[in-house]
Amino acid sequence: MRSMPLKSIAPILLAFPVALCFAKSGEWWEKIPVAAWSIEQVSDFLNTSPWIGGSQGYFRQGSWVGGTDGNKRKAPIIMVYYQARILTARPVREAFLQLSILNPVVVTARSIRASTAEEELQIRMQELLASYPNDLLVRGDEQHLILAVSQKISTIGASGARSEQEVFQSDELSDVDQSTIVLVTSLSTDTGKRVELENYEPPGTGQAGAMYYFPKSLPDGTPLVTAGDKDLLFDTVINKKQVKIKYDLGKLKYKGKREI
Q: Counting CB atoms within 10 angstroms of each CB, which of 4, 112, 195, 200 has the fewest?
């Protein structure tokens, strides 16, 4: 199976680490076709939509930028947390596809006329779908619910300036004991239904972080998520830190149906 080269996506996501809100109210992604989303809108969706969840953060000691160890004002304050995207959800997959064809190095509004840009983007999308028909972003996965986990690092420097970056291949995400991860990882609902981790893929070139695969159905064949469930809960341990991320199932709706 050919895998889509997503390595060109990561720098674009890193370029827009701060939440950008384009609609004062309502769900703007329901009002604007994905094919018309700008790079800023795609990045906003992939960082702030209900399909994206974050864990509780923890502090990490920054390296000294000058002076002596006693001058603590010289040490930056670093907050680290983990972010998980529900990659199998249709709007998330479509957002990644749109981001892939909106590579600003190839297509920019300044370099070509609007009509030509629209035609060019349509051609690039058709070529992308034809080249990678079996890729997860194109075909989805009817059997699994897949979470793509990355690391967010927020830094406040000595001057007070703040920066944030998303890391897809950090040591913490890569250095996972795959023989024990299944013992500490699960996906459950607020009504008590629970499934264990079925497969784990460490971060690699072209991925959006570490990949966690869960079955969409319970052992008896019934769906994990049903109409009576309100929350979806992801639990795991990364770098000896307990990671808990909750999704509001009532908000995970796209084009009139629940998408996970």
A: 112
Q: Which amino acid is at 46?
A: L
Q: Label each residue of the chain as H, E or C.
A: CCCCCHHHHHHHHHHCCCCCCCCCCCCHHHHCCHHHCCHHHHHHHHHHCCCEEECCCEEEECCCCCCCCCCHHHCCEEEEEEEEEECCCHHHHHHHHHHHHCCCCCCCCCCCCHHHHHHHHHHHHHHHHHHCCCCHHHHCCCCEEEEEEEEEEEEECCCCCEEEEEECCCHHHHCCCCCCHHHHCEEEECCCCEEECCEEECCCCCCCCEEEEEECECCCCCECCCCCCCEEEEEEEECCEEEEEEEEHHHCEECCEECC
The answer for residues whose C-beta is within 8 angstroms of residue 175's C-beta and 6 or more apart is 239
Q: What is the dihedral of CA 236, 213, 20, 120, to 10 degrees?
A: 160
pTM score, whole prediction:
0.77
What pLDDT does 11 receive? 44
CB 43 within 8 A of CB 15: yes
Tens digit of each residue's pLDDT (9 = 90 or more) over 72-94: 455 678 888 899 999 999 999 98
